[in-house]
Amino acid sequence: MLTPTVSGSPLPTVLGMECLYTDRRHIMVVSKPAGIPMDGGQNPDDHPVTAEMAAAALAAAVGVDEACVSPPRHCHQLDLSTSGLLVYALSQHASSSVADSFARRRVTKHYLAIVHGHVHGKGRLWDWPIDKVGGVDHFTQMIGFGHRVGRQCVTFATVLQRGYLRRGGDGADARELIPVTRMLLIPKSGRRHQLRVHCHRAGHPIVGDTVYSPVRCISYIR
Q: Which pLDDT does position 54 carry in this prediction?
């Protein structure tokens, strides 16, 4: 269990991101909320606060060692709309070590997602390859087909709970109940947008996904 203290003092929250653990020399673990991008990307004015900025501010707030790299180096990434833990390296040694652990699949990542529809059964293994479509400004992924084989991807999906969400809004169908499923998703590969593409291919897009969900699925909730 992570102990949220440094020298007996509670760890800070800066620019919307909370520091959950740090040894102040090698590693810092932070909690990123949805809506904060990793960096400014192509349109920095759209996101005045980034994970990179917040991590640097957190490192200063907790008082990391003077020999630490600046700014802290993220060891993996999370999508703009995804909340979760981010690991930052504070030293070159830690950066190399954690990167090696990710490359060798020694790190297991778990995601909770609410998807459209009631998923049948208890567990699934999705192994559809995915391929890049579009350029830097309009990046998407698709399931490989034909001569476009794509890159191998494997996701383990477990059904946790089935239920309903209320549509909301002001329209005539504002009180309509939408079937959804809460799932545990464990990617065994680390392709960009992998979970979103696999859920879409399975016929159960993630609720609030504005890239891969049909318009009818995103018109009422984010």
A: 94
List domains and CATH numbers for the chain.
5-103 (no CATH), 111-218 (3.30.2350.10)
Residue 155, exposed/middle/buried by CB under 10 A (0-12, 13-18, 19+)? buried
Average pLDDT of adjacent 10-residue blocks, the chain of 222 residues:
54 90 94 90 74 94 90 91 94 94 89 95 91 59 59 93 81 76 92 89 89 62 44
C-alpha 211, offset from chain centre: 14
* From 46, 79, 127, 131, active-site residue: 79
State whether the Cα torsion 72-77-82-88 is positive or negative: negative
pTM over 0.70: yes
Length of the chain: 222
pLDDT of 198 reads 93
The H-or-E segment that residue 56 falls in is helix 51-62
Region for 60 from its dihedrals, namely left if φ exceeds 0, alpha if ψ lies in -120 to 50, beta otherwise: alpha
- What is the rounded CA–CA span in Å between residue 219 and residue 222? 8
Could you give phi then psi for residue 102, rounded to 5 degrees? -65, -45
43 CB contacts (<8 Å, ≥6 apart)? Answer: none
Per-residue b or e along 106-122, where b marks 16 or more CB atoms closer than 10 Å to that residue's CB: eeeeebebbbbeebeee
Confirm whether 79 is a catalytic residue: yes
